[in-house]
């Protein structure tokens, strides 16, 4: 009897030891292959949109290794800058991973550069959330206003904003009425695993865990209503024909959301502007944005929303070669790309604001 117990114990110890050795060897192999560790800093809001986790330090990827992305109490990415005045005018910027600064060190992000180039009397806030579009920007603004009131709000419009607005299905326009809806719903497993200490620790320390974490995010954590759109959807969706890029639905929904954002800002005495990154959409990957992007100036003027297009700035610097301003083969901006965007904002938004007396209390 005792001999059998020893055999079982020996088998268990051997199995555990073998697994540990296997994990250690795998970690060395993955490190040698250049696989990075990273943490998920995103979470799903109850309204169905993704946002950054508040008061969080996440081990994020860069092209040279890993670094910590740091988030404040509102889920905005923060960087170390020269102290700003307590009475500084604040500019809340909304955008996707281009604004957030995915793959970039703190000092290379757009808002960090803007804060370094401007006096202590103005502070730019990085409200960028990777993968977000026009509908998420609306939710991010509404959420931010519950905690803090900026003096200005800027959308840094990018090449996938309108496509994401439709596909994420956070708002639906029906007979000129805007309905709140959603696409994603968290499963039990999301609540059980996502915020646990051990999940965070494994993401931060174990390269082998990254594919498993990605698999859970894609297949285990969320119900996706889009998969049931033609059978038995749980939420409100536009008509099938309205989902096609050539249908005017995308344009009408975009304008309605922009009108709502402008009115929200006006109610709170906040300036509101739209500035493009200058990176242009294409007809294949970003068909809805592609069809609307050339008309943005005239469309936004219908709602009296100021628009600044930085395409000319980017084309002048890149000289027709997008690789010069991108982390090629990835399309996110590199140091030169963010510097070009910042210079455009400084010249076309900041300097005119100074002339208008923006920093005068």
Quick description:
This protein has helices at residues 2-32, 97-100, 110-117, 134-145, 161-168, 188-193, 197-205, 209-219, 249-267, 287-292, 296-301, 311-318, 335-355; strands at 42-44, 50-52, 57-62, 65-71, 77-78, 89-95, 122-128, 152-157, 171-174, 177-180, 184-186, 222-224, 271-276, 307-308. The chain has 361 residues and is α/β, with parallel strands linked by helices.
Folded structure, characterized:
The chain has 361 residues and is an alpha/beta fold. It has a single domain (42-183, 235-355), classed as SGNH hydrolase (Rossmann fold, 3-Layer(aba) Sandwich), CATH 3.40.50. 41% of the residues lie in helices and 17% in strands. The chain has 13 helices and 14 strands. A hairpin with a 5-residue loop joins strand 4 and strand 5 (77-78). The longest helix has 31 residues, at 2-32. The protein is globular. The N and C termini lie far apart (86 Å).
């Amino acid at each position: 009897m005792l001999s059998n117990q020893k055999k079982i114990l020996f088998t268990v110890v051997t199995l555990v030891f073998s697994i540990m050795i296997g994990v250690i060897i795998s970690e060395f192999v993955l490190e040698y292959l250049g696989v990075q560790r990273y943490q998920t800093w995103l979470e799903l809001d109850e309204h169905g949109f993704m946002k950054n986790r508040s008061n969080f330090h996440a081990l994020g990827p860069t092209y040279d290794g890993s670094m910590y992305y740091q988030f404040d109490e509102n889920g905005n990415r923060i960087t170390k800058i020269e102290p700003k005045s307590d009475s500084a005018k604040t500019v809340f910027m909304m955008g996707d991973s281009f604004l957030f600064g995915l793959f970039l060190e703190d000092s290379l992000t757009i808002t960090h550069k803007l804060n370094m180039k401007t006096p202590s009397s103005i502070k730019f806030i990085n409200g960028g959330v990777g993968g977000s579009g026009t509908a998420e920007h609306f939710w991010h603004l509404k959420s931010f206003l519950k905690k803090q009131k900026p003096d200005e709000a800027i959308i840094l419009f990018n090449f996938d904003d309108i496509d994401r607005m439709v596909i994420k299905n956070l708002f639906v326009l029906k007979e000129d009425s805007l309905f709140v809806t959603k696409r994603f719903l968290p499963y039990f497993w999301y609540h059980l695993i996502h915020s646990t200490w051990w999940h965070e620790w494994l993401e931060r320390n174990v390269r082998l865990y990254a594919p498993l974490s990605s698999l859970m995010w894609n297949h285990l954590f969320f119900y996706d209503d889009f998969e049931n759109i033609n059978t038995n959807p749980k939420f409100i969706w536009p008509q099938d024909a309205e989902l096609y890029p050539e249908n005017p639905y995308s344009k009408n929904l975009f304008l309605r959301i922009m009108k709502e954002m402008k009115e929200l800002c006006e109610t709170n005495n906040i300036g509101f502007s739209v500035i493009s990154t200058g990176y242009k959409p294409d007809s294949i990957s970003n068909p809805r944005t592609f069809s609307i992007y050339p008309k943005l100036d005239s469309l936004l003027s219908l709602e009296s929303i100021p628009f600044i297009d930085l395409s000319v700035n980017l084309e002048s610097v890149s000289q027709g070669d997008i690789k010069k301003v991108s982390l090629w083969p990835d399309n996110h901006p590199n140091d030169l790309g963010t510097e070009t965007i910042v210079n455009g904002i400084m010249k076309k938004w900041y300097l005119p604001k100074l002339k208008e007396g923006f920093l005068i209390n």
